[in-house]
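Follow-up to my post from last week.
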Amino acid sequence: ETGVTQTPRHLVMGMTNKKSLKCEQHLGHNAMYWYKQSAKKPLELMFVYNFKEQTENNSVPSRFSPECPNSSHLFLHLHTLQPEDSALYLCASSQGTSGSYNEQFFGPGTRLTVL
Amino acid sequence: GQNIDQPTEMTATEGAIVQINCTYQTSGFNGLFWYQQHAGEAPTFLSYNVLDGLEEKGRFSSFLSRSKGYSYLLLKELQMKDSASYLCAVLDSNYQLIWGAGTKLIIKP
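User reply:
Got it. Predicted complex:
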């Protein structure tokens, strides 16, 4: 595997379900990100991890819970989601967070539908 | 607040040149990125500007004016495969990327 991988690619869940999204990067990067992408809206940064430490949490509801066990893996745990949480969830990684080191490499995303 | 503005949609003809503009108001500036995103795919990096001026990379060029809070992406010799959304993003003083909503570029034969 190369680059940034995400699983699953598609997920349909009920509002009472618990599920997890997984991201893995094979680029030796130190920073990893979760984004939410909704139609015709800017990418919304959710969480940033740098050297496994969470450095940003942009007022994300607690029904989204990130986990970063090491620099290569990032999870997003989901529970009691709402229909408005339906979106494309993108994971990205970068060498660092400053200047050109912030060039981000994205995974293919997970298309989430909440019923 | 922080804001990135770019046109929602543009149309151009195959073989022609198109310029996609981006204006920004952010708390601090540590560089500006352009990404390309084909429908149903992840964004991919195109360019990074931190100093004023033009950066050329093949058929694509990116320009930055920090004093005007302005950038553009110039695409030459347009090909059908250039049909995509183009995202402008600014790295602010907290090293957080602030994203525009993207410009959907439609290429016609």
